[in-house]
Fold:
Amino acid sequence: MKASQLEMEKFAARTQKSKAALENGKKFIPLGVTSNFRYYPPHPIFVHHASGGRFWDLDGNEYLDHNLCFGVLMAGHAHQEILRAVTQQLEKGTMYGMPYELEQKFAEELCRRFPIDRVRFANSGTEATMHAIRVARGFTGRDKIIKFEGCYHGVHDSVLISYKPPVEQAGDLRNPNMVKASQGIPDGTAINTVPCTFNDLEALEIAFRKNRGEVAAVILEPIPMNIGVCMPEEGYLQAVQRMCKENGALFIMDEVKTGVKLARGGACEYFNVKPDLICLAKAIGGGFPMAAFGGRKEVMEVLDLGIVFHAGTYNSNTVGVAAGYAMLTKVLTDDVYPRLHKLNQILIDGYNDILKKEGLKGYAVGAGVNGTVQFAPRVVKNYRDWLEVDEEMWKVWWYGMLNRGIMTQAYAWDEQWTVCVAHTEADMEQHLAGFREVVPLLHQAQG
Ligand SMILES: Cc1ncc(COP(=O)(O)O)c(C=O)c1O
Structure:
């Protein structure tokens, strides 16, 4: 029996109540989960409760949590400052559907952190990228967008293209085929999304050349974090920005995952790049639904002028704004970043030392508060490289670590871990001690 199968069986035996809960849920909910990403075999863990950097499942097992809701919870679970802000707000009203002052303060704080002049709110990363793309289309009067294989920008039709295309359909690396990631996306929408290869300026040049005068925007994740952690090459983001300008297209940086996590001002600050539009979600809400898109004044002006329409009943809902404002001003204070970056580096260095010493395939990579182990034969620079990740080794690692009380990251080898403010050096040591126990299984998997 494969090592991963053994670990999966051990996992199944210690999470019987989650299995039963999934079976019950399937009666009312397709697949038993309300987002496809939440399902994994043999059954997902059902959470009983969570606090700080840990959670507990229905069977009473405790886990060190590095999934942290797909990277949302840089504050950890149920942070006291955020709970206080939300509780105070709840007493003043849960929802207004009318403007109020706190939303302005929140907007001002985002404009202080990021190189943007104006920001509008939404409720999810999907909405943020959808609106940013519409703004770009309205501003430029063009329809097409260029997006990168392996990058994920949510579930709306324009971006659910070439997300994880099967390699036999993906076509030429320099000039990839457009591959829909789901049934139900109209051809008329899909033809306006041009796929491209990350970290390859020639591929971008070809995409612009083939669609001359038609591209409204290039959208990308500054560090593609839906293929693990894929670092952009030195100067790549600046070159993309320059090429957008030369071609009359806007540069949209999807900072849903990097946002306030990579640095105070996200990837804009970390890489010193100033895109035309940015998209934010996840961490900016401190654990509550909150998203935003923003940009320079001339671009966002299409909303002032009514050229582009943006609306939403729940936009800048009071709870999300209270939580988000507390997150930015009370939790993610300047002193937090060096401490968390240090914790993340302990993990990255610790993994790399062990992998090297043991002669195991793969490497640890990370930035800000995120990282992962890419069980790949070479450094992953784009989606096609990521396809070489050894799934068996990854599964041995992920289930093996779960069985030792450590949720290293959300399920699948395209995710990454997050370090939160509740984590300590002792937690990082516990994490690495768990990994040392898994090493013999990885040797078995590597063969
Ligand atoms: C980079 C990126 N953009 C957008 C989204 C979509 O965000 P949401 O799930 O809040 O719609 C995600 C979700 O993981 C993401 O990783």
About this structure: The chain has a mean pLDDT of 98.
